């Protein structure tokens, strides 16, 4: 029998206001937070995605879950609570997409390497030196916690074209949950 913990949650999509909320720090890592983490992981894996921030499931608190390991190698879930980027260097441009930004991807330029600090699901301090896909994933998810979406990093023209496409999709009833 499956518990509610492995039941995927609704992923909020742009332009829903919760995606623009600044997430609040987590003070007490209690049972409710552990359950949220489990449900976020189930949601991310079933989407499928490589990262998910709590805002994306309607909880504006500072939690991200991520797993950039290749699917064929199995799951390697990571959790960061109250994450912050403490160092960034270099530049890299990479195609990004987002579970909250329907049917769109774009090239985004970000720092190539970052050092991120936070705590794991047990409250133990964690520091991650990241580059490549992990670096991009961490920056993308931490952006969510500040109410920033990857489309905020692209030109206003590309963003306007996406908004126009979204409007058409909405009119045709092609968006999930509408």
Q: How would you describe this structure in keywords?
A:
five-stranded antiparallel sheet, 26% helix, single chain, 178 residues, Peptide Deformylase, alpha+beta
Description:
This protein has 178 residues and is α+β, with helices and mostly antiparallel strands. The protein has a single domain, classed as Peptide deformylase (Peptide Deformylase). Helices cover 26% and strands 28% of the residues. The protein is built from three helices and seven strands. The protein has helices at residues 31-46, 132-145, 156-171, and strands at 51-53, 63-66, 78-89, 92-98, 101-110, 113-119, 125-131. It has a five-stranded antiparallel β-sheet with strand order 1-2-3-6-7. Strand 4 and strand 5 (101-110) form a beta hairpin. The two termini are 30 Å apart.
Low-confidence stretches: none
Order of helices and strands: HEEEEEEEHH
Q: Write down the CATH topology.
A: Peptide Deformylase
User: Could you name the CATH class?
Assistant: Alpha Beta
Strand order of the largest sheet: 1-2-3-6-7
As for the number of domains, it is: 1
Distance between the termini: 30 Å
Tell me the total number of β-strands. Answer: 7
| Percentage beta strand | 25-35%
Largest sheet: 5 strands, antiparallel
What is the CATH superfamily classification? Peptide deformylase
Mean pLDDT: 93
Shape: globular
Rg over C-alpha atoms, rounded to the nearest angstrom: 16 Å
**What is the structural class?**
alpha+beta
Give me the number of helical elements: 3
At CATH's second level, what is the architecture?
Answer: Alpha-Beta Complex
What share of residues is helical?
25-40%
């Amino acid at each position: 029998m499956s518990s509610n913990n492995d039941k995927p949650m609704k992923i909020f999509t742009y332009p829903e206001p919760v995606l623009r909320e600044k997430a609040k720090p987590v003070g007490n890592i209690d049972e409710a937070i552990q359950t949220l983490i489990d449900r976020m992981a189930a949601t991310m894996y079933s989407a499928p995605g490589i990262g998910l921030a709590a805002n994306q499931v309607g909880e504006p608190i500072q939690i991200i879950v991520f797993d950039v390991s290749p699917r064929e190698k199995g799951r390697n879930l990571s959790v960061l609570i109250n994450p912050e980027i403490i160092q960034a260097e270099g530049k890299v441009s990479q195609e990004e997409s987002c579970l909250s930004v329907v049917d769109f991807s774009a090239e985004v330029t970000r720092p190539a390497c970052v050092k991120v600090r936070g705590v794991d699901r047990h409250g133990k301090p964690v520091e991650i030196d990241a580059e490549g896909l992990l670096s991009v994933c961490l920056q993308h998810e931490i952006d969510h916690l500040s109410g920033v979406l990857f489309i905020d990093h692209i030109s206003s023209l590309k963003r306007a074209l996406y908004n126009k496409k979204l409007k058409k999709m909405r009119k045709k009833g092609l968006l999930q949950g509408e």
